[in-house]
Amino acid sequence: MHKENSIVINAPRARIFEAASDLSQWPRILPHYRWIRYIEKSPNKNLIVMAARRGWIPIQWTSEQIIDPERTEVRFHHLKAFTRGMDVVWTFTEISDGVEVKISHDLKPRIPLIGRFVAESIVGDFFIHYIAIRTLYHMKVYLESNHGT
Predict the structure, then answer these.
(1) DSSP secondary structure of 13-77
(2) How many other C-beta atoms are found inside a 10 Å radius of the C-beta of residue 39?
(3) What are phi and psi of 42, to 5 degrees?
(4) Which strand (E) or helix (H) includes residue 7?
(5) Per-residue model confidence as pLDDT tens digits over 21-50
(6) pTM to 2 decimals?
(7) Please, what is the angle between helix 13-21 and helix 130-144, to 10°?
(8) In the prediction, which pLDDT does 113 show?
(9) What are the φ and ψ backbone dihedral angles of 5, each rounded to 5 degrees?
């Protein structure tokens, strides 16, 4: 399964990268995130448990987060839950209208035939797309408002 979501944000690239990297702020600026708990925390590598909502459905997962300032990327590798093994990459590309922020999700199904359907339809379309598009939208609203400066 490969899913991509993107949005253009009119804010400095460094500020967007900072907001995307700082998971401690996500529940405050992203209303669908319930909480974030750090298991291990360092400047560029974190182990976290994340909890969000897909509509009324509460979900949570454990991830390793890598913050890569040289490549201006934020990467996640999901370690537990139904998305175990998924790799997520946030990229930030300056374009004429602002900064294109893209979230790419890649997950190889553990069960080939049934797993592909489950990964695409349920995990990819129902959960990942729903949460990622809301994450980008609310990140944009936050960063383009006075609160995000």
Answers:
(1) HHHHHHHHH-GGGHHHH-TTEEEEEEEEE-SSEEEEEEEEEETTEEEEEEEEEEEETTTTEEEEE
(2) 12
(3) -145, 175
(4) strand 2-9
(5) 999 999 999 999 999 999 999 999 999 999
(6) 0.87
(7) 130
(8) 46
(9) -130, 140
> Is the distance from CB of 51 to CB of 62 less than 8 angstroms?
no
Tokens for 109? Answer: 């199904």
Gap between the Cα atoms of 131 and 134, Å rounded: 5
- Name the one residue in this structure whose structure tokens are 């408002």: 145
Taking only the tens place, the pLDDT of each residue in 61-76 is 899 999 999 999 999 9
With beta carbons less than 8 A apart as the criterion, state whether 35 and 51 touch.
yes
- Answer whether 147's CB lies under 8 Å from 16's CB: no
Cβ contacts of 92 within 8 Å, gap of 6 or more: 13, 16, 17, 20, 72, 73, 99, 100, 101
End-to-end CA distance of the chain: 36
Cα Rg of the chain, angstroms = 15
